[in-house]
Amino acid sequence: MAGREDGDRRAGTGSTDGSAWAQELLEHLRPHGRDVRRVVAWLADAVEGAASLQDDIGRLVAGTRAPLDEDLVAAVAAGRIASAAWEGQGRHLRLVRVTYPNPSAAGVLAVSRRTPFDRRTSDIVTHTVQVIELLLKADETTAAGLRLEQATSDLRLAILQLLMVEDTVSARRVAAGLWPGLLDTDTASVHVVEGTAEERDTVAEECIHVTGERALVVLCPAVDEHVIVVTPGEPEARELRALIGGRPRTFIGGSARNSLARTATAYGQAVSALAVAHFRPDKAAVYAERTHPERLIDPVALREWTGRLLRPLDTVPHHTRAELLATTRLGLEFTAVNAAKVLGVSRNTVRARMERVETLLRTDFGNLTARAVVHLALNIQVSQADTPAETDSSDKTPVSLSGLLSGPAIRTWSQDLLAHLDQDTRDLRRTLRTWIAEGANAERTAQTLGVHAQTVREHVRSAEPVLERQLLAGGSDLYEVVLAHLALDDPDQPALHGAKTGLPDSLVHG
């Protein structure tokens, strides 16, 4: 290292007895051997003595701590002297300053041996310091890169969380500094890519690469195997679907196009589609590919019913209402813990917001049917937000949930969906109906049917590929099956609605 005060410290690797030690030292600069502790251990062996490295506050970084003169160490660390030599008590000691990447910090390398330092051992110490400084700089560069990657990842997540609570203005403002034009769109779709937790970082990098950074790629804070991608256009969506084609154990679910303010809804759609993708040979599915019950109900009547059900929420301020709606949508779709992770709030906050919605709507989210009904209303509220409402409805009889689900289209869809269960000789349909009536509780269902709880779970699990819907995980898929059962309400089967829903009776029966 030219320019140091220690005259022995010059560039080069020459020594009086060959360069074998120099070659060994250089091996520590190879990618597989970059470890300061290994270098210090090698130095101790090379000089047939002992070596240690401590930082500017006296903390041992590598090697074995030896008794040292604190004043002398402080002088070397401060740069008042570049190196020092000391002899006494049967040993010879060298102290050498090690420059850290941060110019204001420095370490001290202490090397001792029983015999005096000759030219060879002095060269070894000199060049070992150079290698240590290079390794420290490389470590700092790597650490800085990792910090930058983490900050970027955190920023992407923050943008997603702003979108989840419908704060698109702030989301665009945050994104504009690093990714100009990233959210320069009125509508977008959300995709969820599922792989293994070990490969998730690699999958996320590939998602960023194939979309040309035109999409918002986020490591899901709730599910370790998921990558969430907000895609502005169809070309980016095609690239994502092509990406998973050659990857084993990788699936993708995509939402319909939604406004940015409805990102939370689109996320729920993507997760629902992901469940279907597990049953598809191409491992991909899009939410719009499947017929959903709300599309089979008179839209005018559905809008009127939804408006009445959610009207109590209009009494709270707009921003608070948006938070309550976004939180409830996710809370009904996922667990409180996972919803909290996605939104970046505590699970207690999620529960408090949902309890407030329960109070306003006079319902009980502990009831599975009530969750399914409110989930339907929230979906309608989002999907029809931009549809002009009818102005003259004063002379119309308020529609009920029973009325909505009594139409021929929704009943035909329900019959076709649940008829698939009849092909199994285990009477999956009876088990599933009872399981829903018991609030998706396997133990209570088992008691009602007189079977083992594990049998109930196996029946429900067997129904999933038949219906192409995830049931045990809850969420949209389960709620659709609940609505199908409500549409085919059988008086000979366990009751699913009425007073048991915890909803106002007028909204259920009219």
From TrEMBL:
Source organism's superkingdom? Bacteria
**InterPro entries this protein is in?**
CdaR-like_regulators, PucR_C-HTH_dom, PucR_C-HTH_sf
Could you tell me which residue ranges the PucR C-terminal helix-turn-helix domain spans?
Answer: 337-380, 428-472
Q: How is this protein named in the record?
A: Helix-turn-helix domain-containing protein
Name the species this protein comes from.
Streptomyces coerulescens
